[in-house]
């Protein structure tokens, strides 16, 4: 039996693994900001401090700490140039500069003391060290920040302990404390930014899922209604085929068998369609409720819909032909009613009190049913709407219904405020195959359903 390591060793091992794990791709510091000047700021700061610190560091190591010119210049370059690397790889830049800092302190041990300069870190080294620790805090996770902070503090304490008489100043303790504070603040800001970006991404995903769910629910409802329409016609075919031998005298036996085959095929088609669409019906929809068995509304019931909307306080003007067109396909009839219903509901939600006009007419060629719903801006622009935002889900349902019957839909805001919904529904439309082939596709667009100015 394999025994797990003790808890302290396991935590230490996990810490080492976490420290050695990169934080992510080398995205520039502030590279995710939307402001261009913020994205450029790290580069400007890095070049500015490199240009300032490089000559000062080399001169300080040579004149005050007694190093040779070549060695001082090399160590100065190794300590300051990593600031340019820190814009993309802060941890690598800190490691290079930290190694150069320690090497410079060790090299200075071989030289005699020349004054009471801070030991083991010169002032220029402290500045570059703090900048690099700030950059590390903006990129790395907490375990790595703790490791960097401890490495800086332990190395400074060891070097100071080796030769305590070199300086009476405790600048290294100040640098150690300030570096920790800078990394803590930078890490907190980074985590806050990461959390906000993750929340924004999650909201985007959630909105896409809501739009997709709304689309699928609308298509499911259309499938149910389409089933009711088709089932009626199939039932009529079945009844007519079954009763034909009794209604028509003198039918030959071959014709009787043909009518029997037609009736059997129609019944089989009804059974298969009900079995296929049964999975789309919810528990309530498949039950014995009266709503599922009620006749589907159509163009003839639009006046009742307008009357109910007027009673809710919305001024609506209706224009319809009298008499209504004959032989309107049931899918077109139902789609026209649903489009007007959703358009009026959106006016009530987003532009309460707006003057609204509903028009239902037949095109000049007599082949199209034209549905138009136009509303002005809200009567009281200062009054808050019933709903302050729109998701466009109502327009998704309209678009799917129009696509089902092979028509066109035009929606959009009006100049000066208001909204317009115009649909053209072919009176000879037959349900196409696009609904079946795209029933499970994900929506690729979203239109804002706003009816305010």
Automatic annotation (TrEMBL):
One GO molecular-function entry: kinase activity
Record Pfam families: HATPase_c, HisKA_3
Keyword set, alphabetical order: ATP-binding, Coiled coil, Kinase, Membrane, Nucleotide-binding, Phosphoprotein, Transferase, Transmembrane, Transmembrane helix, Two-component regulatory system
Domain named Histidine kinase/HSP90-like ATPase: residues: 335-428
Leading EC class: transferase
EC numbers for this chain: 2.7.13.3
Transmembrane segments: 41-59, 65-84, 91-109, 121-138, 145-163, 169-189
Residue ranges that the Swiss-Prot or TrEMBL entry lists as coiled coil: 198-225
UniProt feature, compositional bias: Basic and acidic residues: 444-453
Catalytic activity annotation: ATP + protein L-histidine = ADP + protein N-phospho-L-histidine
Region described as Disordered: 430-453
Limits of the Signal transduction histidine kinase subgroup 3 dimerisation and phosphoacceptor domain: 218-283
Protein name: histidine kinase
Organism, as annotated: Streptomyces aureoversilis
Biological classification of the source: Bacteria, Bacillati, Actinomycetota, Actinomycetes, Kitasatosporales
